[in-house]
Fold ATP-dependent RNA helicase.
Amino acid sequence: MAEDRSRKRAKVGEVEAASGDVVTLVESVDGKTCTHQCVWPEGARPTRQGPPPSIPSHKAAKEYEFKLDPFQYTSMNCMEQGESVMVAAHTSAGKTVVAEYAIAMALRDGQRVVYTSPLKALSNQKYRELSEKFSDVGLMTGDVTINENASCLVMTTEILRSMLYRGSEVAIEVAWIIFDEIHYLRDKERGVVWEETIILVPDTVHFVFLSATLPNAKEFAGWIAKIHKQPCHLVSTDYRPTPLQHFMFPAGASGLYMVVDEKSKFKPDNFQKAVATLSSTQREGELLRKEKHKRNQEDILKIVQLIMERRFDPCIIFAFSKKDCENLATKLTNLDLTTDDEKKLIGTIFENAVDCLSEEDKRLPQIRHLLPLLRQGIGIHHSGLLPILKEVVEVLFQEGLLKCLFATETFSTGLNMPAKTVVFVRPRKFDGGGFRWLSSGEYIQMSGRAGRRGLDDKGIVILMLDSKMEPAVARQMVQGSADPLVSAFHLSFNMILNLCRTDGGDPSALMRSSYRQHQTELALPALKKRAKELEERCKSVQIENEDEVEKDFEVLQKVGQLRAQRRQLFQDPSIALPFLQPGRLVKVLSEDALDMDRYLAAKEHAGADDDDEIERESKYVAETMIKASSGEGVLGCVVGCKRNGSRGYKLDALLLPEGDAEPKVTTVDLSRIESVSKVRIYLPKEGLKSLHARKKVLSTLREVEKRFNSVLPLLDPKGDMKLQGEMLDNLLSAEQALESEGARDWGELEGGIRLLCKKTLLKRLAELAKREEKLSRELVGHEELKARKKVLRKLHYLDSVGRVSSKGHLAAEISSADELVLTEMLVNGVFKNLPCPETISLLSCFVSSGNSKYNGKLSEEYDKLFKQLREQVSRVAKLANEASLGGIDMDKYLDAFSSQLMEATAAWARGSNFSTCLKLGGGAFEGSLVRAIRRIEELLQQLIKACQVVGEHDQAEHFSECSDKIKRDVVFAASLYL
């Protein structure tokens, strides 16, 4: 080991950074390269140049039988100097070795060390793993506490955060904290807990951060050096112990196409062949959704058979929904991938695992259905599984007994379970609003599971292709960089209250120390430079007779606005519908013209980087304005008008196509009706379904257009439509006043208007850059903090000088649910005299991850409880909006509370078996119900503590009784790792 550490380093240079001095070195041994950078706090000069001295072997905290990689021994040398380190390396590269050395070093020196993980399940696994290597290890997850006085404590980040706020002994005594999977900090919901915890840790503590590769890891290391006034080493490597080969499998194909080889070289010819194969088997839009789904299932069978034939197993097949995992796995029931001995061993492990369950729970459908699949060597892993089954699957996979595992994306986080092959069932995923391509970061995270160090000479990644993909998209996905580490910091009422009740606690100070503030400040120089460049470009735009062009521009805008107001008349169905009978001729405005303002706003925020881009946008905007102001549109014939759900009406129309294009009936929004003519034509009785009928109507349309020389007589708002009112009179008067201007040939003025658009756009972009620069100089979230404090004062959680009241102390203890709504319900006596089952059901609305818009019918008693909850939610939202807290969307806020599991959780509290409760769960998966009940128990513990803090001992006793009633059977079955 000493020899490994004393290898010669190659010093490649030093660079200066905003956060302090950065010493950059490169280690390279046996083709394995790592980059070592040390970021120092600003103003603190390095006490040495070059790498930390090597550790003599007789002082090493831990010896290894294998040769260490450069990034491993470099990280160890840094830690031995008592300095923090961030290790960024690919999955399976061996980051755990660094973490284990940090623990061994702390134990050797009689120090306490904390190992944090983002999930309770990962904490359980890490506890088991570390307990096999070290003697003095404890666990704290909220669910379980084992040996809390141990020198090495494994815990969730939430537990550590709570300890830091309480000033517990552990938080005071700890010398090292290991943050595993630090890239979890960018998680929208829980990433802020990591950031908050890192800030709250005393400056005397040193860190070990473990992460997948990050393009901005140095930025993160700079943040640590800045807020904790200590050097932070960044040790990163792109070396992958097992190289990857990337293949594509087009839908309906019979073979694989290598698109990236083990040297990371993209093969465009093979990619084109794969796309061509897809085109010949499945043209875009050719197959119905059901047929595509069926083909996907058939292709999965083909791929698994191919994997087994080529001995590419074990494989992980990533699907992006729980249902897909189960459906695809059940389609392989005819495959038998295990030997008789393996089947016997799988059965034994499974039976031993579920032996702790009652006979009734052993008969649960999920338990009975999974065992036959497991015996065949096929596994399923997703959040809807019972936790004990997920752990069985993990154990079997680690033992090499499962050859094919269907898993959701969460399996790629934290679990150290690589396979030889990784398969993606499709290149798109649903993100709530629609389907999108996988990002390169997501692809890297999941594909990183392919290739087992020491077992495989290469890892195999297979991307199933079910739709056309451009080479640039494929290349970016497969060869792009990992997602950067971006702060997800946001304020919460709980955070503010905890800081306000801590001696010397200041929310503003925490915000100033946030990674988000750090990233914002780093962007300042670029923003300042961009604002200056945009101003100079704006000044460089020369317009002949600029004053005259500006006047024309104003007239153009007024004409466009008046036409838009006229169109608004037709957006009211009560006005428009009587005149939109089938056969009525209308003029339809292009969507581009209508969306001009939205387009401009989007472009402002997206920014523009070069003159060519600005030129294109300016031309588009000028053309769009002229089109909107001149009333240009496409002649169309109304086919029918019908209701469009709750959104009003939709209009079906046959529009004049360009050139010889085939006439089609198109759905048109009422807002796109530019004008309605007095002319109606007759439509065929058989309708317009046939091409012959559509062509006949098209011929009539062209004849009408020709007869009226493209100027059809329009319905008069007063005379024909019988409309009246001051708004209409003003509109008609304004139109008349501008009639002469509106009749001008705006096309002749397009050049000048386009230049003015360019100048205006540059000016707007410069103003935006200046505004962003100004905001970057201010404290992130400053206005939000003021608004949140105002809400807390209105609700009497804080007094006028910022002291925390009794209500505030209650809310400060609640971190697993909406602290304000729950506290309001507590102080308003909602839980007093409420039986345990009803209490549990009410709490389920706070923690349920089920369908927020669940429409199942509730019994009268539960419906009444849910209405009480919604009243409190509405009250809190109203107060928040009065305090200008970003305009809370009432419907969205109410939807955050789901009634789906109210009856199921109440039944559980009454002692019903799990199977009965599941039937009341509105279609929830078994694992989802278990997770909800466990989260309720976690919330109950917080409520017990909260009530004790403010002296409400009767309430605390009630919540304790509720906890006792739900802690039983399969829901709280002990983890196999403990």
About this structure: The longest helix spans residues 750-777. Residues 546-589+631-744 form a domain with the Elongation Factor Tu (Ef-tu); domain 3 fold (CATH 2.40.30.300).
